[in-house]
């Protein structure tokens, strides 16, 4: 009975969202289910007491919301928003909210494994507003990661010498800090037969 109190209003909201396009003459998109599923995930995270079933159920609801938001139509994407000309989309919002819900659930129910999908979700939210933007941005990041190590390595003997000189000064500074942190010796060495 306790769970029915949670799920009956959620099913009612899902039916209303699904039938809203008939009543209000609004084009229906699957992405409209995403906020309802994320809200249901919040309710489940708060109401359920058992640790592991709550974490699993919140994770599945978040994935379902992201699956709905993944099919975002181009008409719902808003370009050129402040700051830095960001593009706002239901997918980006759903990724961010799902990550926040997963982090809160991981904190509340001690579900440490939920941190990984939350971090991945935030990473995808920063990558782009649509799946195509995400693929393009991730391929740019991959190319940058592939090319960066080669540009950081010294190419000539002079550059290697500068690196070694810098490393020697770094070790000198570390040694100085370590020697300054050692306590001063308080014992006095006396020769046998001497009096104080």
Automatic annotation (TrEMBL):
Name of the featured protein: Uncharacterized protein
Naturally occurring in which organism (per UniProt): Natronomicrosphaera hydrolytica
Ranges annotated as spanning the membrane: 29-47, 54-72, 84-105, 112-130, 157-180
Keywords, ordered alphabetically: Membrane, Transmembrane, Transmembrane helix
Superkingdom of origin: Bacteria
